[in-house]
């Protein structure tokens, strides 16, 4: 069979019978997942603050139960995503984002950082222009679908703020200690779809990365695929727990905490028999011209700041230049106070 190297449309990945060369990754033994699991934290637990703080320090990722998000709402966003990704490639491309950073359909934003392509298509909901795309995709049902998205954003925002307060409290500070917290920008939703793949052991759904904002609330359908990296252990699969949501700590939270909590390196693997949907809500950051730095109350003579102040736009620019080396780019060489 001739190998398919060109002309692969991400909207059609699920129909391919062979893995195109441009999608073939090289893996080594250190890529195998080990038998461990991230903590599952019940938000009703009386020790919730300590449990969250410990999970952030050791993993940078955990699952939460009793989070208060109605299951019906999660199911609605999941079925909206299924309807979208089930459409023909041509139809989906009518809703393509004009620029990688804004709303619309397309391949993962970090595609340029990897040699090989990722087995993933997605739809980003970043600004109000997503509604125009919804109108193109669903001329009759678009009001209903926009309503579901707006409700989901509202619920996610409340949950993310609660988690932020609790985790800050585990560090001995409060939201008021972040100067710009009152002007937090809205979160971004990323709907991800990983179609069935003819050779999952040689393909990658989403390459290893950290999320840039404060934290991400992730719903993965009942299909596993998410893996997180832990220095001492290696890759660990985050097995779906019914009703639980996954939390990934992002770069900005790591910087604010002066390196006390981890931003977790994670990736998504794919599957030969079932496609997978995930819904990521990436939350928390200031306006682009605001300076970000470790929280003043955390640093002092005993614990000097390990990162220099940079504007949020500058950090994002650095991240999109050097990717996984962004912390090194803002690290203070000889921290003193
Ligand atoms: O699909 C997943 O499990 C991971 C998604 C993710 O990491 C992202 O959208 O940033
Ligand atoms: Fe991510």
UniProtKB/TrEMBL annotation:
Uppermost EC category: oxidoreductase
One Pfam family named in its UniProt record: 2OG-FeII_Oxy
Cofactor: L-ascorbate
Pathway named in the protein's UniProt entry: Hormone biosynthesis; Plant hormone biosynthesis; gibberellin biosynthesis
Entry superkingdom: Eukaryota
Residue intervals of the Fe2OG dioxygenase domain: 184-285
Record-level Gene Ontology MF annotations: gibberellin 3-beta-dioxygenase activity; metal ion binding
Entries under PROSITE patterns matching the protein: FE2OG_OXY
Enzyme nomenclature, EC number: 1.14.11.15
UniProt key word Disulfide bond: no
Record has Metal-binding as a keyword: yes
The protein's name: gibberellin 3beta-dioxygenase
Organism classification: Eukaryota, Viridiplantae, Streptophyta, Embryophyta, Tracheophyta
